[in-house]
Amino acid sequence: MKNYANSSLKELAACIARREVSVEAVARAGIARIEELEPAVHAWQHFDPELVIKQARLLETQAHSGLLYGLPIAVKDLMDTADMPTTYGSPIYENHRPLVDAACVAASRSAGAVIMGKTVTTEFATFRPGATRNPRAVADHTPGGSSSGSAAAVACGMVPAAFATQTAGSIIRPAAYCGVVGYKPTYGTLSLAGIKSLSPSLDTVGVLTRSVGDAAFFIGALARLPLSEGLNADAAPSRLRIGICRTPHWERAGEGARAVLEQAARLLEQAGAIISDVDLPAPCAGLTDAQIRIMGYEAAAAFAPEARTHPEGFSDAFAVLLEAGKAIDGTSYVAAQALAVASRQMVTGVFDKVDILLSPSTEGEAPAGLSITGDPIFNRMWSLLGNPCVHVPLGNGPGGMPLGVTLTGPRWGDARVLSAANLLERVFASNN
């Protein structure tokens, strides 16, 4: 049976539209792939083949409409689904059945997508690992978090696209560890309604895919934005100005992360881009600490109801996070938000000099073992700034696990950063 997850979303949508393959056939191929690999990967929190077929057959009785018509996708188990359980990665919500879909899920259904199931999330999208294994690893390595199941499902071809969310590094880090594309849009591009929020001023809905084009196509369809238009055209690379941004945390980058950043810069330069080194304004050195304070403060407020009624359902790690958040006073929170506002204005000025910033995605390859999900040290400040980011995988590091880089654009410059990411992806492919 053909594995349609290896086709691009646009190609698969075109095949379905031309009736070269049925929606049900695509769904059945996805089911077969999941049933084959799930015992080893553990990517799914909820998977009901009968419900998948029911969705596919219902779609086939309706007129073909929507850019995602018939396309199989995964939904992170942080997002409400009216026809499937939603646990948010916590035993507190083990039997939770939402009445309506999250806004992004509803939008995907309206666009014609087939929901294959719910993928594993870490506890309330924080750092306590789930059961998911990294499918790129021979021995156990973390798939990252919190969008662990989504990244693993895409990496091993169970689905071509999976919803993800990011508060600190939960899109970019799993993408990096599992060797897939991760796209965190500009903050606010997609609604957070119906998503269990950890930190409302940081949480962002994005996607994990196997190509930059698929990421642009998927989010573009949901946000009604022309993100994939002109993506494959030559983007006048001689005019593309790339700033290498090693970030204030460069000393944390391992040998592999440093090497792949230089590799990406060389590839883009060979394609005609202008490469320069960029230092962020000095106040940006405080953004990671500010993100931690904001996330902790808002998490303590967001989970106050569960803390009052079901504190025994929290893991020790999550309870510690909430206690730390309660220790942050309002003055410190306001100061962190003020730094974020000022830094956004300063970083906007950086993009007057360069078109795209190129930076590490992670400290290195996925850590061995399943007890941790890695550190979002290279992601936190971009989440706080709200800029669009795309992780592009660029092969494997010295340990044999995936590595890649993050491209960041100006706020609401999503089309620009996707175009640059697509260029890097194509140049890398042509050189390998």
Automatic annotation (TrEMBL):
A GO molecular function assigned to this protein is: catalytic activity
SUPFAM superfamilies the UniProt entry points to:
Amidase signature (AS) enzymes (SSF75304)
Q: Amidase domain: from which residue to which, for each copy? A: 27-418
**InterPro entries linked to this entry:** Amidase, Amidase_dom, AS_sf
What is this protein called in UniProt?
Answer: Amidase
Pfam families for the chain:
Amidase (PF01425)
On the tree of life, the source organism's domain of life is: Bacteria
Organism of origin: Herminiimonas fonticola
